[in-house]
Amino acid sequence: MTASLPLYVLRRLAWTVPTLLVVGLLVFVLMRLVPGDPALLILGDSATPEQLARMRAEYGLDRPLPLQFVYWLGEVVRGDLGKSITSGEPVTQLLVDRFQVSAAIVLVAVALAVLLAVPAGLYAAWKQNSIADTVVVAIATFFLSIPSFWLGLLLLLFVGLKLGLVPVVGYVPFSEDWRSAITFLVLPALTLMLIELGVLTRMARASAVDVLRLEYVTHARAKGLSERRVLLRHVLPNAMAPTWTLVGLVLGNLLGGIAVLETVFTLPGLGRLLVDGIFARDYPVVQGCLLFTAAIYVLVNLVVDLCYPLFDPRIAAA
Amino acid sequence: MKIRANAFIGVLLVGGVALMALVSRVWTPFNPLKIAPRMRLQPPGGDFLLGTDEFGRDVLSRIMAGAGTSLLVAAATVLIALLLGVVVGLVAGYLRGWVDRVLMVANDALLAFPGMLLALGVMVIIGANKWGIVLALGLAYAPTAARVVRGTVLSLREKEYIEASRVIGNSGSRTLFVHILPNCTAPLVVLATSMFGWVILSESALSFLGLGVPPPAPTWGNMLSSGRPYIESAAWLGIAPGACIALTLLGINLLGDTLRDWLDPRMEHR
Description:
The complex is a heterodimer of chains A (about 325) and B (about 270).
Chain A: H1 4-32, H2 38-43, H3 49-58, H4 65-77, H5 91-126, H6 131-144, H7 148-162, H8 178-212, H9 215-222, H10 227-264, H11 270-279, H12 283-311, H13 313-317
Helix pairs in contact in A: 1-12, 5-6, 5-8, 5-10, 5-12, 6-8, 7-8, 7-10, 8-10, 9-10, 10-11, 10-12, 11-12
Chain B: H1 2-26, H2 59-95, H3 97-111, H4 115-126, H5 130-156, H6 160-167, H7 172-180, H8 185-209, H9 220-227, H10 236-263
């Protein structure tokens, strides 16, 4: 049993490499499907013929496509994602800067949402079909149905403008003044938390309902364990696994969909970088954002999977 | 009792939106595209039930027309995603072996992209327009459908009646289409319902970003985005379209829950 845990970790780690490769291939193909000369797309319209020629040689753009992919992959692995056409800054630097903003919002929102959703779901499942359960499910379904950008807009209107509690537009980086940085991030994080609360509560409740029906729970109760102990020690760990998987998916989807929220709150995050890149036809930036976000998604799911054995030792044993 | 209430509200909400979309094809209170500078930013009430926007266009008329666009885009997208997903899922699940392995590696790679990100990537190539969104979101959601169909096919193909169909000499395609596909209906209906919700949400998000249906054609997403600068002085521009998206999604979610309770026996008595 104990020997299989390192094996599980190793196998899961090994799987990540081909996944990342395929993700890279997909982004490469996507960017090559953009109509036009790749060298011109990467360097922008202001490029001189010499620059274009150097570009073609460096990336092997005159070679067959599979070779081009290998060259491209080499650059990517070395962390060279090119320079932004519009600002001239290295794309890698832009990604790192912008990612901090998005990551701060997403992490805080999801952490708080999990802390609230799991107890709420567990309680609703325990009191299944009671009024309390119906209320929890109704509230969760309500938040599940609200688009994040609309909730953000409403919070902006009522908490920001009407009550004047927090600043509504702009952003100050953490490095300059962390106190005001937080005030700018409160509303976006609150918005995301409320939205994700809906999905996660429903999932936590559904898995707890499943577990509560199992015989070992009846057995634990028959042994005379307190309800509290049955719920926390016997139901919670088993009910956590599906919810935990969802956390990984939610984190990834948030990174993909955060552009709308960053637009509402005019935050300089990763999503906004991508969308501005699409509008400006800044292909190195677009490519960098796609690659970076997808890679983060793969890595987040890796971490989620690696945490599984903490809830359920059987997974590593299998 | 609870299920009936959910189903009732769900049908009411989704039916209401569908009715609004249908009516908008033949009648709206005002022309949703007609600009009237002297009528700009009129608050709700009087002639304009939901007020007017920054170009003096009637918000209610635009919301009605937007319902048509949203439902059309969502229906077309779900259709494409299901069609692609069913083909890939059936083939992979039925043939198994290396075909299955190759298809599923490609499928999982697509799933490794968050749906919205993949859609944004595809939009880069085909540009922002109505059918661009349909294609982008259809491609983004097809892998999920493929997974569901493949899973169902894999579990069905070991059943006795499928074995019987093969033994009496039915061709592979007959077994597949007459005996296996109909049994994928239940999970597909449940999936299609949730997918409809995701697509409405993604479409409005893309339109909100300016990467969806281009103005002046109204969609709930681009109405919210153009109302964003006026949120302080003309809050109704930010409230009505968002409320429509939320109510539609609520209706779809309630319907989806009801369908799941009916069609998925594992989920009974919840």
